[in-house]
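Write out the 3D structure for:
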Amino acid sequence: MIVLQIKDFKYCNAEAAFEFSATVPEVTFRPKRVFYNSSFDSLSVRLELKSLPNNIQTKTIFFCWYKMTVVSYPSLLVACALILSTASAYGVGGKREALAPGNATTGLCSYEATCSVGGIEGVCVSISSGCCPGGSVTSGLCPGSDDIRCCTNPGCSTPQGSGTCKQTSACSGSSVAGYCSGPSDLQCCVGGSSSCILGTYSGCSEASGTAGLTGQIIAELNSMGYSFRSLNSNWVHCNDCTCSLQSNAADSLERAAQSVNDYITINSAFRSSAEQYLLYKMYQEGRCGISLAAQPGSSNHEGGRAIDTSNYNYWSSTLQNYGWSHSYPSSDPVHFDYYNAPDISSQNLLAFQRLWNRYNPGSKIDEDGVYGPQTENALYHAPCNGW
């Protein structure tokens, strides 16, 4: 068989490619089979041979993953039955993961690395090749070309039924292996959606009550071109709230804390439209001590550019030095806004509407970012843990 090992990393036009040195100690014909062995510092690929020139010793070939083609020099031809769609197993910075094959039986794409958006594990796959069907796509989290992006919660189909690719620990139904691109803990979750829906949630923590759905909304916002990230726990301690903000607001908050070499404890930061719905519902029902709440789609917390901190007297001047406004010092003294970040609170609601329509094609609602009767009803029936 041929053993190909990495010699150098190159780009083949817009396509990521590997340049290999191919040493041929023997020839074995294995039609339509391809095997992969990889580690963090080397990658070897054993390929079947379609034809082989006589007396070949060492040749250099370009293996272009994006186009799924092999160009040989001078006349070495190889045939790969298993189509790959990733760019490179080794990107710049971050955790490097071994290149994994897809599933030839189910037509899965291969993936290049794992990624995470809002606490939801995803995989780096080729978007132009249709490798994230029905999922949320986030750029800037994967090595390789711009076509390789982070895909979370794509759809999947198994003999047991259709579902969503997610971690087995997050699946309340049946996890079916072999139908999702990614590591072994990413499987097709079929049926068994949580009995908890937002409209009947009786707890008083909007963050824990919507954790799964909030993660999906953050991923959807990032896929829409916005930038959200988790806060650095060295400088920001989050007390029962979603610990994320728009990236520039997060940067400013962390710099403020670093400037006094202290951490800030916050009681609220980003709120998904699902969290805001629960908070608004608690306010309307007079529950959980909520005396005031904005309706979904209208809070700066939904825009990821506001925080609440009980220790506002200590932090007020420092936060203001770093661009935060103490907007309501008399009526709501715990609240600070970062107006240098765009107001996208309605886009938060739009992200939920897009997710609802994706997972409920038979009962679609308007995608307008407006909290009307359709969206209110959809939020009522949305699963706490997401789809």
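The chain is about 20% helix and 25% strand.
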